[in-house]
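hey so i finally got around to running the thing on that chain from the lab meeting. sorry it took forever, my laptop kept dying and i had to restart like 3 times. anyway pasting the input first so we r on the same page abt which one it is
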Amino acid sequence: MCSKERGRRPVVAELRAQMLTAMTGCPRDLTALWHRSAAELGPSNPLTLLIACKSETYASRTRPVTESVPVWERLVRCAADALEAGDPAHLEIVSRYGRWLGRRGEPTDLDNAVVHQRAELARRESALGVQAYWTGTVRLDLATTLVERARLGHLDHTVKAVPSADLAEAAELSAQEIAHRSVVCGHDDLRTWEARGVAGKVALCQALLGPAAGERTTAQARELADQVVRMTTDFMTGRQALREPRLLQGLLLRAQALLAAGRQAEAEAEARLAGELHRGREDGWPGGIDPGLAPLTLARVLAGTDRAEAVAAARRALRSRLDWFPEDSVYCVEAREQLGAC
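ok and heres what got predicted. didnt touch it at all, straight out
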């Protein structure tokens, strides 16, 4: 080790400790910490890039999606030039780029995110192993994007994928991750719930969009929805920290499943609770839940019972999504579609 590197060791240790403190206390401090790291260690230093990743992770939850995607594109290029392919900071940056690309939802974004995540999954399975942590991360990211493409692809004229095929692939990927996380993390761990939550979204979409959905009886569709209700209920039982993002995801998923199962009154109660909890959050994207999902869910729940309130909720959802998404995003189109249906 050269004398210059030895001299940096105390600085690296201090910056790393401050990064960990900021992540658990005040993420806003990460921006100033990144500037210091860039000045003292250099913009391409692995720790500087890791701090940039953590800083942008927080910032992406507080600004429009159109501003986030170019930032992650730049970080991907910087990481590719400065970091080893298996460096955790590099892997996290590449994963977060794929997530925000899909979340933007402009024409071709869902397709491009699937291509990116599928290629990255193959690379990580080969280089890191099929059960490595970062392999599992991108596996579940791909499953999530496939569900979104199946659910919203009809709103993007560039999407040609068959929804049933996307859902079948997402089901297989999420099942693999549930099995792995159940062994490594535990059956009831929050990280296992992330995979179960994706599987629940697959089942709910299959009730409405899956193979031969038009031929499925109401009873069969409701049974699929009831499976999701039972899964989310099992997960929520005994958990009190409802502000935990994954529990908020569970509430919204259960509200949608209850509605699909024909249990409107229960769905309304869950949707209202989720809306209140979401409004109490500082960040707009708790756990990857987009800012308009809670009012959109309430609008769907109330569409058949209280048109005036359903319209008001749909308008809130559209306003929120227009604040965060580009106007031609499938997420804005979805909100407009719901408003028109109320």
